[in-house]
Write a structure and sequence with these properties.
The chain is α/β, with parallel strands linked by helices. The protein has a single domain, classed as Rossmann fold (3-Layer(aba) Sandwich), CATH 3.40.50. It is 37% helix and 17% strand. Helix 1 (30-37) packs across helix 2 and helix 5 packs across helix 6 (137-148). The chain is globular and about 45 Å long. The mean pLDDT is 95.
Length: 178
């Protein structure tokens, strides 16, 4: 299985704001990002998060992308669209103490995100030998940990730049952030 993972363009939201599943716009032109990454992509099925920051890029890359709610970013619950200062150090520290399972914000844990993202990838793999996914950093990290067989702490050291493509093929990261 070959999965081309594309992180959405830079969102139109302040870097100090927690935005997860909030449907924010993009600060970059989707067509320009698409023109840059399209030469790296095969003509295969495209899947995307339905959130605007992914949807606009997916539509610029493919005439009929398939949208799947399981590809949405982590749900931060009550923290959505608050600044990290508004959320407060005590709550952030509680999250940092058990980030894989913390969900006291009323959203979802990283562990739950990983389960839904992995289920979606397995379903796609059951139907296609290769596919493109236009997704969020959290979903990309979840899939990388799952598909590459990495230990849980690898979640925190894995990163993907905005508007870039990474290729995972047969359990190996072939290239990243092109």
């Amino acid at each position: 299985m070959r999965l081309f993972l594309i992180r959405h363009p830079r969102p139109a939201v302040d870097a100090n704001v927690c935005y997860g599943q909030s449907d924010v716009g993009i600060a970059e032109n989707a067509a320009m990002v698409a023109a840059r990454v399209k030469p790296l992509l095969p003509d295969v099925p495209f899947y995307s998060s339905p959130l605007t920051r992914c949807r606009l890029l997916a539509e610029a890359l493919h005439p009929a992308p398939r949208f799947d709610d399981r590809l949405r970013e982590l749900d931060f619950g009550a923290w959505e669209m608050q600044t990290w200062d508004e959320i407060g150090k005590d709550k952030i520290d509680a999250w940092a103490a058990d980030p894989l399972h913390y969900a006291d914000h009323g959203g979802e844990s990283i562990a739950r995100l990983r389960l839904r993202a992995a289920a979606c990838a397995r379903e796609i793999a059951a139907h296609h030998d290769e596919a493109v996914l236009v997704i969020h950093a959290g979903v990309m990290k979840a899939l990388a940990v799952d598909l590459l067989g990495l230990p849980d702490p690898a979640w925190f050291s894995t990163s993907f730049a905005f508007g870039t493509v990474s290729l995972i093929e047969d359990g190996k990261l072939v290239w990243q952030n092109k």
